[in-house]
Each structure stands twice: as structure tokens, then as C-alpha cells.
Amino acid sequence: MHNIRGNRQAQGTGHGPPGEGSPPSKEPQREEQPSPSDPSTPGKDSADSLKPAPKSSLTTSLIQKAKRQNNTFPLFAEGFSRNRTAQEKALALEQQVLVLTKELKSQKELVRILHKALEAAQQEKRATSAYLAAAKDKDRLELVRHKVRQIEELRRRVEALEQERESLAQTASLREQQVQELQQHVQLLMEKNQAKQQVIHKLSEKVTQDFIHSSEQPLVPPDAANRDFLSLQEKMEHLKDDMEAYQTQNRFLNSEIHQVTKIWRRVAEKERALLMKCAYLQAKNCQVESKYLAGLRRLQEAMGDQAGECSELLRQLIQEALQWEASEASADSVELSPISEYDEYGFLMVPNYEVEDLQLLAKIQVLEVRSHHLLAHEANERPLRERWAALGELAPSVELKQLLRMGVSQEHRPRVWKWLVHRRVQHLQAPGRYQELLSRSQTCKHPAARQIELDLYRTFPNNKHFTCPTSVFPDKLRRVLLAFSWLNPSIGYCQGLNRLAAIALLVLDEEESAFWCLVAIVETIMPAGYYSKTLTASQVDQRVLQDLLAEKLPRLMAHLGQHQVDLSFMTFNWFLVVFADSLISNILLQVWDAFLYEGTKVVFRYALAIFKYNEEEILRLRDSLEIYQYLHFFTKTICNSRKLMNIAFNDMNPFPMKQLWQLRTAHRERLEAELRELEQFKANYLETRASLVPVVPEGCTSEDEGDGEA
């Protein structure tokens, strides 16, 4: 540091400390110029300029510079120089040290950068030398590949850093919002404090005025004043005694309340534990009862119509078991914590199952969903609602895709769904098209109208909007399904379309919007032939799902194959109605949010995620009957929507759409070949049967022929 500064001063740069901006006069400059060479030291000037200056030279140069700058004021330069204190000189020296320290840091940083550049150049030189020294093209190709791998690794690092930067930016924006909220809160508190200060000021003024007013009143005689003072003092003593008594009583009551609160909490915890245990025991009891009844009936079927004491005893046992089951079902059951009977879309929170163990499991499930919702409300729901509110105009983007996967808040869902549906059917929509189809359905009766009417009141029996006689939703659903049957005569109506249209009605509420949502699902999202009479595309997707399950969850598929469990009994309906009968409403609508944007790939992802979510529970079951019973209702036990979403879109990766298309194409070809073979087999059978002459065995006549002869 001293060497650098000494060299600069030896070269006559004349830089002063910060703040000394006035240029030096000519006279000091002459003082700093090097003196003529001494005869005793010839030729040392050039040599001394290359040698590092000693430390004392820095102090000497600084003092000379200070004197020089003092001499810039010719009127009182000498007097000012004599009057300068030691502190000012020390301050100037400290400023010089700071400047030199900054220069040293910058020089070190420059050296570090040059070192890095030198290392990079040396590495490049080594790589080039290795490339040129390689004897064969194969070695050179391997070096190039190594470089490509390094470049790819660097690109991945850059992408990871970019993602981290985006996440940090989002976190910073959230923090800024929180800071703004806190600032608003502080502003409110300051306003409240100011209002309180004003109130205190007014009260002080009032007390002062009262005191002045009381001093202006005529004085009371001394005896009367003494008597009043003594009476007031006596009352004050009584009030103090009462206050001490109340304080003692209050402390006692507080301790009692504290003890009672502790006892109440312990009792509440025990009650919750006992309720859960009782619910579990009742569920197990119902399962044992059902197995007992099934065993009795199988034994009765095995014995047949054999008369005897055993068959009579079996009938008696079955009758007693059924009567006992009915009496137990009508008895007072365990009352769990009170919950809302219906959710915001009208679905029954506790489904009215006929089997008692399912009822208890449904109650437990509703409580878990409710607790999970309350816990996740502040952590997830509120920020998500704020992000949707700040989104503004909708446009396809990565951010919108992520938000749709996380779920749309209830107040924004109708607007988002209308936009998603319009993107898919805008080439099909025409003004007045829905009204035209409605008028046609009123003038002409469609062949599918009878089946639509039969399925109308079987749509969502656990939803109050479709079971209440005074509800307008069944009429809306009827008109939507009839209009679609006229729009697409090749399909007309297929069982399952009523549930798709019902979900659209519950969210969008408008008939025409629900109609176009149904059109978007059937004609643009699902593959062709999904709702045809043969359900070809639906069968293909079931085979594709089996392949994906074998790839993603091999342990589970091996376990199910060991017990000969066919999953298509459950999964076929999942795909046909997009989980409408399977998942609880808040998770179901979250699936639909992503499904309307991304397509059928979402259905496969969530189907795999559902099995992954419950994989360990299924692996613990060791009987095919138990597995089928569990698969019948296990989708209703899923309450953590965030966990299910992470499994679907993270744990199931990679999930390329190209693989899905290839599997669909291969299985469609196999299925069509099997159907052609089956049709050929039917045709051969009918041809063979038609060629045979019916022969009536001798002595065998019909009842009509016998009556005629009689």
C-alpha cells in the first residue's frame, strides 16, 4: 500500500485526500519537483524511482501536501498552518489511509479476476492441447462429448439458479405484501393512538376546567368540610376493603378457572380419542357382522334345500343376526363433532351409506377434511386466493398452468371455467345455437329422452340440488342433455354424461355455459369414441392405465395380480365421468381445473396418484374380498389435496404425452383386432346355426300342440 502511494507521489501525481478539490498553486509545485542531481550521488534519480519508498516517505509526503494546500490561501496560509490541531492532521491521514485501502481492495479484486481468466485460459489451452494431441478421431470425439456434457451441466445449473431466482422473487413479493399490510396496520394503530391522545387531551382540559370551577365556588365552613372529609375517608376505607376482598375472590376464581380449563382440555382430548377408537371399533364390528352374515349365507347356499335341524338353525341364526343388526343401526350412535351437513356446492358432507362401517368412516373422513382445511386455510388458501385476484386477464402461460394445478378459488372458478371452455369450443360456438337445439328438442322427441328422464333423478343422490323436489337443477340438466343429444346424434346420450353436465351446472350455474362445457369435454378433450355405443376409446384407456400402473407402481400391481384383482371395475367409471363419483368435492373440482386446461393426461396422472396415495394400505390387505371392499370407498379417504397434487405432477414424472399416444395407438389396434375376431366368430356361429335344420325329438311336443290334439 505504501509502495503504491510512494511511487505515485514520486511520479508527481499530486492526488490529495478526499475533499481537497482546489488545485495546488505553482509555488508548491516547484517545491515538489525533484532537486537537481547531487554530485555525490550521480544517476540515482532514475534508480530511486524504481525502488519502493519507505513508510516514512508517506508521512512526509502527506505533511508536504497539507502544507502545500494551506499555501493555496496566500493571505493567511502560514498562520492557518501553525494553528492546525493534531486531530485535523490525524483526520486527514485517516482519509488518506481509507483511500489507499479502497485502491488496494480494487487492485486485489482485479488480480483475482485476472487469476480466474488465466485459469480459464489455461484450462482451454489444456483442452485444446489434448484435442490436438489425440491420435484418433474417436478420442477427439470423446473430448468433444465431454465438453458437451460440461456445457449441459452448466446449462442445468443456470436453469436451477433461474428457478431459484424466480422462487426468491415470488417470496420477496409476498414479503413486500406482508410489509405493506403491516405498514397499514401500523398506520391504523397510529391513527388510533392519535385519537386516544385527543381524547386524553379533552379529558385533561375538562378536569382543569372542573378544578377552576370548583375553586371559584364559595368555601365550605371548616366543620362541615371536616365532616365531609371524614365520611369520604371512611367510605374510601370501606371501598378499599371491598376491593381487596374482590381481588382475593378474583384470584381464587382465576385459579379455579385455570384448573377447570385444564380438566376440560384433558377430558376433551380423551373424548376425541375415545370417539375415534369407538368409531374404529364400530367399523370393525360392522365388518365382522357382514363377514358373519356372508358366511352364514354361503353355508345356507351350500346346504341347499336339505331339511333338518342344521338348515333350521341356519335360518334362525340369519334372522337373529339381521334383526340384531337393524336394532344396532337404530340405536344411539356415537355423535362426532358437529359439522356442516352440506358443502358449498351442495354435496352431502357425510354420505348416507347403507353399511354402518362406511358411515363411520365417512364421518371420520369429513372431520379430517375439515381439520385439514382449517390448518391449510392461512398457509395455502389465502395466498392462492390473492394470486388469483392479482392475475387479471387470463392468457395461456406457465404461471396459469401451475395455478390451475393448485386449484382455483371458489369465487374465481366460474370465470376461469368459462374462459377454459371458450378456448376449446370457440370454433363450434354460434350465436343462438343452444336455443335452436332447445326448440328442436321441444318440437321433436329424441329417442334418448326416455333414458335421460330415467337417469335425471339418479344424478348425484348425495347432492341437495338434484334430490330436492323444488330445485331447478333437474330441469336445467334435462334441457342440457336433450340439447346435446340433438347436437351429436352419433352419441345421443350415454350414461355418465349426466354427471359431467351436473358438475358443470353446479360450478357455472348457467345452462348454456354448462352445455358448452359438456361439448368441450366430449368432443375436444376426450378421444373420439369415448362415449360411443362400444366405448372403444374408454376400453383402450383402461389398458393404457394398466401399463402405466405396472411401470410406476410395480409392487402394487404384483400384489393385485397375486390376488387376481381387476382394477377396471373401479377405474372405468373414473375415466368416464372424470372422478365425479369418487373424490370429495374440493379435490374433484381441483382435478377438473387442471383437466379443462391440460386434457386427459391429467386423468391418468390423478389415477396413478390415487393408487400411490393409498399404496401402503392396499399392500397390507391379504384377501381379495377385503381389497375389493377397500377399493369401493378408498377414494373418499383422500383429504390432503396438496399431497395428492404433488404426487400427480411431481412423483409420477416423467410422463411424456408421446408415450401416452404410442400406448393408445398400440392398444387400439389390438382391441380393434379382437373386436373384428369376435364379430367374425359371431357371424360364423349365426351362419352355422342357420344352416342346421331344427329337429324335434320323438315324443317331445309343445304345450300348444298337446292342447290341440286334446
- Number of separate helices: 28
**Assembly context of the chains:** single chain
Overall structural class, as computed from helix and strand content, comes to mainly alpha
Strand content: under 5%
**Spans of at least 5 consecutive residues with low confidence:** 1-56, 69-80, 325-339, 704-710
The gross shape turns out to be extended
- DSSP, total strands: 0
Q: Cα-atom Rg, whole angstroms?
A: 45 Å
End-to-end distance = 138 Å
Q: Helix and strand succession? A: HHHHHHHHHHHHHHHHHHHHHHHHHHHH
Mind summarizing the main beta sheet?
Answer: none
* Mean pLDDT across all amino acids: 78
Q: What level of helicity do the residues show? A: over 70%
Write the layout of secondary structure elements.
Blueprint (H helix, E strand, L loop, with lengths): L1 H9 L15 H7 L12 H6 L4 H16 L6 H7 L2 H48 L3 H80 L5 H82 L5 H22 L25 H34 L8 H9 L6 H13 L7 H11 L5 H8 L7 H4 L5 H15 L9 H12 L2 H15 L10 H17 L1 H9 L5 H10 L7 H14 L2 H13 L1 H6 L3 H10 L7 H11 L5 H35 L11 H7 L1
Describe the structure in your own words.
- By secondary structure, the chain is mainly alpha-helical.
- It has 28 helices and no strands.
- The protein has helices at residues 2-10, 26-32, 45-50, 55-70, 77-83, 86-133, 137-216, 222-303, 309-330, 356-389, 398-406, 413-425, 433-443, 449-456, 464-467, 473-487, 497-508, 511-525, 536-552, 554-562, 568-577, 585-598, 601-613, 615-620, 624-633, 641-651, 657-691, 703-709.
- α1 crosses α4 (55-70), α8 runs antiparallel to α9 and α16 (473-487) crosses α18.
